[in-house]
Amino acid sequence: MSTTTFSIVTPVALRFEGQADLVIVPGTEGELGALPRHAALVTTLKPGVVRANTIGADGKASERREFAIGPGFAQVLPESVTVLVDAAWEKSEVDVEETRAELRAARERPAGSEAQNEANRLAEHILLAKLRVAGVYE
Prior knowledge:
By secondary structure, this protein is an alpha+beta fold. The chain has helices spanning about 95-110, 115-135; strands at about 5-10, 15-25, 30-35, 40-45, 50-55, 60-70, 70-75, 80-85, 90. The protein folds into two domains: about 5-90, ATP Synthase, domain 1 (Sandwich); about 95-135.
């Protein structure tokens, strides 16, 4: 089975590194699926969910891993997929009630300047991605 090295990197830590046979990222122009030996490219990412079929220690078993992310970049090379973002969350790291409260607060903020409105939209999309990773759809 052919695999690619998959990693998620934030300014604070290497959030994940392992082998995968498929990685799907939320590109700004649409979702992008990368298989091993994919052509080289760099793309911008929007807030959403990164999904990967990771390979277990036995080298055979495939496990679906999901991470909520904010905006960032992905570099795809024939032998690797690297996701560079400010933060990434797995299901176990999402407090659903706290995230729902943050989402309500974001939706209730009054309109402000264009920059404030864009920041509010970005925050809302990140919170929705966190809820999707947790298995909750709002």
